[in-house]
Amino acid sequence: MAGERPEARSGDPRTAGPARRAADRGRYGRLSRARVLASALELVDREGLSALSMRRLGAELGVEAMALYRYAEGKDALLDGLVEALYLELEERLAGQAEASSWRAELQRVARATYEVCLAHPQAVPLLTTRMLAVPLARRPLAVLRNHERVLTLLTGAGFDDAAVVGLFRAFNSWLIGYVSEELRPMVDNPDEEEPAFRLGLHRMPAHELPVLRGVAAALAERGGTEGLATGLDALLDRLAATG
Amino acid sequence: MAGERPEARSGDPRTAGPARRAADRGRYGRLSRARVLASALELVDREGLSALSMRRLGAELGVEAMALYRYAEGKDALLDGLVEALYLELEERLAGQAEASSWRAELQRVARATYEVCLAHPQAVPLLTTRMLAVPLARRPLAVLRNHERVLTLLTGAGFDDAAVVGLFRAFNSWLIGYVSEELRPMVDNPDEEEPAFRLGLHRMPAHELPVLRGVAAALAERGGTEGLATGLDALLDRLAATG
DNA sequence: CAGCGTATGTTTACGCCGTATACGTACACC
DNA sequence: GGTGTACGTATACGGCGTAAACATACGCTG
User: Which residues bind DNA (chains A, B) (predicted)?
Assistant: First the structure.
């Protein structure tokens, strides 16, 4: 650390001669797609999606914005890269665990791991829906497709016919993304407030028009957690495995 | 129609005198929040979310961008307004139908109507997840809160205790938004292509690494439709109504 | 009808954004 | 040691959201 030039762009250009060797470019050496994506994800985790701009990310890496275009074709591709990064993290997490013995248990394991990755990067989760709605199947990041392959293999391996596999696959994905999205909806309006009702900002809602919502709002603010996730998934798999 | 000035900003300002009466502002008379939101939604439906900018929407209404700030506090508020518009459309649709007799059937009716509204505005659907993740409960648009109230009322009216109500409510929302999101994922890569495999762009995927996905891709491209929606919802409600 | 406050839309300007294009420059290889 | 190339820089353009100051026509008061 101490030996590294802390800010590659500092110093008077008139006296510094060749200000930096090429390998010094970027705050800690050469760029790479992995470094760009890791830095982008970290930035999003720290400051939210809206803080992610090419210029800002460049600054984060000690580099001009245009340098990033060697590693992502544009901003959209960068966002797809973030999605890919999340799925790579999912693959790592799954690889670090023992596979379950039944297809049901294995799907539960995948679901749980996905949930955990999403909760670890809540600010990035919106990308899972928005980019998926922007990119056709065949252009999804490879890690996403590998995840699809994993789930589909599990289902066909369990002996379901094509129609059932498709139904189960869709239900699995739907429930997963829906559950996570619902789980991450912010409930607290004013974190500094002690009183639960004020914390939730209930005084902002038209009182008499929404009596039931007011009543259960506090309970709604709790999370369903992985139990809720597992319960719903179980219900769906039961039904569709029987029908299909 | 014929009597209205087709383009309020046209004409030579040096000869036109007071170029327009105040009531002529905007392409068809005064602005209003409803008109702004309707125009925004139409623009999004027509050209996608990325086409929606303050300037562009202003032009659409025959008005400068800043004029819109009288009807929405900023771009984010405008997007929340779009979410509200979708829920208002849902309310209309529900009001135009007979209520179902059981709480189960009524939830199915609400789910189906929501699905239909979403499929009518596919380009706007990402807002349902992104804005929901950006806005705490108490600040959601009123129409959204009314929708929550409707569902919660249905559930408490059916006699469930608070814990069960919350579980069912969350499962309902999760499944709904997840199913719609999954349903709207684009599958076709090249609409001009005849051959199904090429249409899907399967040649872009690493063949040997994703054999199962390749095999079911065509089936995956079909939609689950309202049947799939109803089936999954039924499974969830069954399980959670029994457990809760 | 006269005058005025207010509601409504315009103008101008600022800093940020994504990105096309042209350009240096240090490295790897012969 | 010279050269091609991979990598990052520099500059520029049009569009974005929006703050602030401004113009104007309506509706109310007398």
Answer: 53-72
